[in-house]
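User: Sequence recovery, please. Input:
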């Protein structure tokens, strides 16, 4: 007997609600099959596309690190770190389309989606913010708060996805809190700052309480607000 799987294609962005009679088969393959490539053989095509989303997030982090190790006036790696994030969103949407086309989804796919989204839309934007100059200890705590909000939002989605009211087709009517890919708004904001040269000492808002333990760039509050919106229980965002 087949069962309905609600799989998060973008951390709460798109649900892959498809009837998948092969889900149990994949679980059996993952738990019993042996061999060096048994994990790869058990993955669906949509799962491999989800991995590309995670790859984009990882490459964004590496590009930020390469920028930090190089000439701060050479912005190529910084622009690359920003560009990888919307590319990750493309794969995030595409894996859901492939899952529905092939009528294959899985619990493993759900977990991959959330983990990839945490890298691409949680960790990576925070690393870019660090790269452009938000580097005080208090900045670090605020950016960590943002990432942890994304982590919590994804965990809640995985637990409550089946409890959210559905329409006649089985599609969830709304998101609880803003989906984590909406952090691309932060990505766009930072890209604009980079294009205007508003980085490092020129970050908008400057720095408060300089040379004290409370030294902080006030713009990190934007990241914290976004984190609070992601974890909101009462904010219901209608699905398109």
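Assistant: Recovered sequence (240 residues):
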């Amino acid at each position: 007997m087949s069962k309905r799987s609600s799989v998060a294609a973008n951390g709460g962005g798109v649900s892959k609600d498809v009837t998948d009679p092969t889900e149990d088969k994949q679980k059996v393959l993952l738990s019993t099959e042996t061999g060096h490539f048994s994990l790869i053989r058990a993955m669906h095509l949509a799962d491999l596309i989800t991995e590309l989303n995670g790859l984009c997030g990882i490459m964004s982090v590496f590009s930020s690190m390469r920028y930090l190790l190089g000439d701060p006036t050479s912005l190529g790696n910084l622009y690359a770190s920003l560009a990888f994030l919307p590319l990750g969103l493309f794969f995030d949407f595409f894996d859901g389309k492939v899952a529905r086309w092939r009528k294959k989804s899985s619990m493993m796919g759900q977990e991959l989606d959330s983990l990839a989204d945490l890298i691409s839309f949680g960790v990576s934007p925070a690393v870019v913010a660090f790269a452009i100059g938000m580097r005080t200890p208090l900045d670090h705590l605020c950016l960590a708060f943002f990432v942890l909000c994304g982590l919590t939002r994804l965990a809640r989605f995985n637990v409550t996805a089946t409890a959210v009211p559905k329409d006649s087709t089985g599609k969830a009517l709304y998101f609880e809190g803003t989906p984590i890919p909406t952090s691309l708004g932060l990505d766009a904001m930072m890209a604009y700052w980079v294009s205007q040269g508003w980085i490092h000492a020129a970050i908008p808002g400057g720095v408060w309480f300089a040379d004290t333990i409370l030294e902080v760039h006030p713009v990190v509050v934007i990241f914290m607000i976004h984190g609070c919106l992601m974890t909101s229980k009462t904010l219901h965002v209608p699905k398109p």
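The helical segments are 23-32, 38-42, 45-69, 76-102, 107-131, 137-160, 184-196, 220-231.
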